[in-house]
Amino acid sequence: MTTQAAPKIHPERQRRVKNALRIFSVTAWVTGVFLLILVVRMVLEYVLKVEIPEWATVVAILHGWAFMAYLLATLNLGLKARWKPIVWFTTAISGVVPFLSFIVEANRRREVTAEFQLD
């Protein structure tokens, strides 16, 4: 019985996917961190009725910009890795659920690294 080796991925495609994965990972972490800060801010303001300074609204703005970058990074990686639409959707939506962006980033990193032989 012979084991069949996985087909070799072209080095240029590996490079493009690796760069897209790096950008995706950074944006996933930045988005996740800003989302956690935003959740803490909202709990303090709306649940615990703590008076939040006006400048703290910048957290929501920063999360919005980070999420837009995350969506673009997801699109970029999805195109290069040729993801199915459901993978794109679940990856994109993870940027609005606290802690989920960290979990999904780790899963996608593991999957893409294995599929494209990026070790």
What does this structure look like?
The protein has 119 residues and is mainly alpha-helical. It has one domain. The chain has helices spanning 11-47, 58-81, 85-93, 100-115. It is elongated and about 65 Å long. The two termini are 27 Å apart. The model has no long low-confidence stretch (mean pLDDT 94). Residues 21-110 form the DUF3817 domain. It is found in: Cell membrane. One of its GO terms (cellular component) is plasma membrane. This is DUF3817 domain-containing protein.
Summarize the structure.
This protein is mostly helical.
For the terminal residues, how far apart are their CA atoms? 27 Å
Percentage of residues assigned to helices: over 70%
Radius of gyration: 18 Å
**What's the tally of helices?**
4
Low-confidence stretches: none
When the domains are counted, the total is 1
Count of β-strands: 0
List the secondary-structure elements in sequence, H or E. Answer: HHHH
> Per DSSP, what share of the residues sits in E-state strands of 2 or more residues?
under 5%
- State the secondary-structure class: mainly alpha
> pLDDT average, as an integer?
94
Membrane topology: Multi-pass membrane protein
Protein name: DUF3817 domain-containing protein
Subcellular location: Cell membrane
Pfam families: DUF3817
